[in-house]
Design goal:
The protein is mainly beta. The chain has a domain at 59-184: Lipocalin (Beta Barrel). The protein has one helix spanning 14-20, and strands at residues 58-70, 89-96, 100-105, 113-117, 122-130, 136-148, 153-165, 174-184. Strands 1-2-3-4-5-6-7-8 form an 8-stranded antiparallel barrel. The chain is globular, with a radius of gyration of 16 Å. The two termini are 27 Å apart.
Length: 187
Amino acid sequence: MNRSCSLVRSRLPLALLLALGVGCFGGGDSGDEPPEDCNCGDPDGNGTDTGDIPGLWGEWTTTFGYQLFHETCGITDLTPESEGWINNSAMTIGGYAPDGWYAYFDDDDDEKFYGVVSSHGSVSFSGRHMRRDGYEAHVAFGGLVFYDEYRGRDVIEGFGYMGLDLTGDGNIECEARGEFTARKSGS
């Protein structure tokens, strides 16, 4: 399933724009099981799951904000606890390799974050989230996907970035960043 590619101009960090420039935004249909023709466990898209990079499809438990850094910009509740939608939350990943992935949190599939995965084992998602205080958050998260022997499950270890649009003009006036971790449920 291919959809037309487009990048929206924004003030996202250069590294994120480069990561997203690798593929197009796409999206598949949500559901509990991947479709039979899904290229879901084959990040390099060659048709054979070599098993060296875990499949992304399914349920994950996420944490965000360990080692959180944020600008002081008048927002007093920009903490890991205030971002419960992504911190200690349930994340569902669906879609197609390599560039048709999407993720959503706590069964809110109306608010999807679209992403790409590389054949080297990294994944990156981005999208927007409307906070309870009415500010729109421009969000990017992802990292390396691997099987963690110590935890006995597949994990995503990496980064989380959140930029807040305080004036509604599409620009980021306040930002926070911290570590992002997702642990695959049942793996």
